Amino acid sequence: MIKKVGVVGAGMMGAEIALCFAREGYETVLNDISQEIADRGKEKQAAILDKNIKKGRITEEDKTAILNRVTVTGNLEDMADCDLIIEAVLEVFDIKKSVFEKLDAICKESAIIASNTSSISITKLASTVRAERKGKFIGTHFNSPASVMKLVEVIPALLTSEETAEAVTAVLKEIQKEPVRVKDVVGFGLNRIFHAMYLEACRLVEEGVCSAEDVDKICKYGLGHPMGIFALLDITSHDLNLNVDRILFKAYGERFRPSPQIIRLVDSGRLGKKTGAGFYNYEER
């Protein structure tokens, strides 16, 4: 039974994943490579909760109770007694490999290890843990922003047990998510749809058909999306977007060739909201 959850990676995605569990009463451990970075993750959670207070969705007392369920740490060994550990570090295989090897050695035998990778094969990631752990390794790809979006792709690896898949699906439902079982292919389901769409949106701008602002209006007022695709890309950050594009391009070829616009943004340091500028300038807002 899953009672205590760990999240490795206290960036926006990791912090929000941990928040999802803490909101629903789970004791949660949020880790990063230093205590300072982990603390910043909890600050991000507090900022999200403050917005919810302003909207009347929760009270100050709720915020305090939720944050009290989150322990932040720069020591991976604090994950030792967690029942489920979700990795949410950089989308680079070698970095994830290092995390999984350490977790495999630290965590109890019954612990489930999950990856929030958005594109890397779960079976390949599962190869980084011992044979005894492979049945308890799975993919859980949360949709960004994780504290708001309900979708989570559940991706069993080749050797993932059905018991593990069912346990993870059940706990995701407990935290008010909509889990969808997806085959272990590069990019899974969400990113194959999303990247095909956003690459076409980039072509519309490159060809002068319409501006980025107008594409976002089409998404919001024509397709019913909560935000425009370029605004969303600025949130997910363009270094990650480009990295995923390259992974998809390697797997599927021309249909996922990276956009020159995204490459230019990355080369210029305009990585999105986190740097103050991407498709939009946030310092002017």
Automatic annotation (TrEMBL):
A GO molecular function held by the record: NAD+ binding
Biological processes per GO annotation: fatty acid beta-oxidation
Alphabetically ordered keywords of this record: Oxidoreductase
Pathway membership, UniProt: Lipid metabolism; butanoate metabolism
Keyword S-adenosyl-L-methionine attributed: no
Domain 3-hydroxyacyl-CoA dehydrogenase C-terminal: 187-282
Source domain of life: Bacteria
Residues annotated as domain 3-hydroxyacyl-CoA dehydrogenase NAD binding: 4-185
Oxidoreductase found in the keyword field: yes
Site entry: Important for catalytic activity: H141
Family, per entry: Belongs to the 3-hydroxyacyl-CoA dehydrogenase family.
Name of the protein in question: 3-hydroxybutyryl-CoA dehydrogenase
Record lineage: Bacteria, Bacillati, Bacillota, Clostridia, Peptostreptococcales
